Sequence to fold (273 residues):
Amino acid sequence: MKCSEEEREYLRVLVQTHSANVMDPSRDYFLESRLRAVVRKMGLAGIRELIALLRHRPEGSLHRTVVEAMTINETSFFRDGFPFARMEENLIPRLIQARRPQRRLRFWSAACSSGQEAYSLAILLTEHFPELQDWDVRIFGTDLSQVMIERARAGVYSDLEVARGLPTTLRDRYAMHVGNGWNLLPEIRSMCSFTRLNLCAPLPLLPVFDGILLRNVMLYISAEDRAHLLRRMHRQLAPDGFLFLGCSEQLPPDMGIFEMRVEDNVYYYSPKI
Ligand SMILES: C[S@@+](CC[C@H](N)C(=O)[O-])C[C@H]1O[C@@H](n2cnc3c(N)ncnc32)[C@H](O)[C@@H]1O
Fold:
């Protein structure tokens, strides 16, 4: 049975409170289809029974499961191409130059989904910058969804997921065929670590990053939460570091703490000093 408007509103508030994601009513079909999967998994009679349980239980893992089930996890290897081209051609060479004394680089794939973004960067660094082999290079991937974090940690992707963005030459060099798809090689997986983290809750102690990819997550969150989130990103970014947003995302107009840079028609941001 379908939920009532009042139940849908309860769910929208639950999702927004715990993830800052705004569930637009035009996405109600999505809300119900994702909930049906949770209902099936829990062996419940229907969505209304699930909502009744949510309302009567103290907030805990069931609420978290429901909130995480509402996230949109669309991603792919080398998504949009051009940010990776800019990193390869300009941004990483400049960082290597600047970090030569420390021989240390830190990157953050914030909202990493199932990990393809972090692994694309690991592959790019390995493929094009062999001198980094004996540097201390780490890529942190974080996401609200524990299910996605576990997928990212496993580093196993289906033929279809691999075909979406990973060229066969790189696939054959950096992944091995396993029963149901491709597993990235330990040399790539060991550059990345994945942790569940809500970007809109107070952040734990994190390193200062040389590059942050905050792509295709801001579009799901409210304007007010976006501004908070960007201020946090600013605090986590080295003065000469870079921030990429998704290609349909922009900084709010009053966000004067970042400077927009354009190189070969590609936009990225750096902290304003
Ligand atoms: C569309 S995916 C983007 C993945 C990747 N960055 C890309 O561009 O391909 C959005 C991801 O943001 C995550 N997300 C949504 N709200 C979040 C929050 N408050 N904190 C952390 N991650 C969040 C979702 O779980 C989802 O995996």
User: Anything to note?
Assistant: The longest strand covers residues 237-245. The chain has a mean pLDDT of 95. The first helix runs from residue 5 to 19. The beta strands are 104-110, 136-143, 156-157, 175-178, 181-184, 192-196, 209-214, 237-245, 258-263, 266-271.
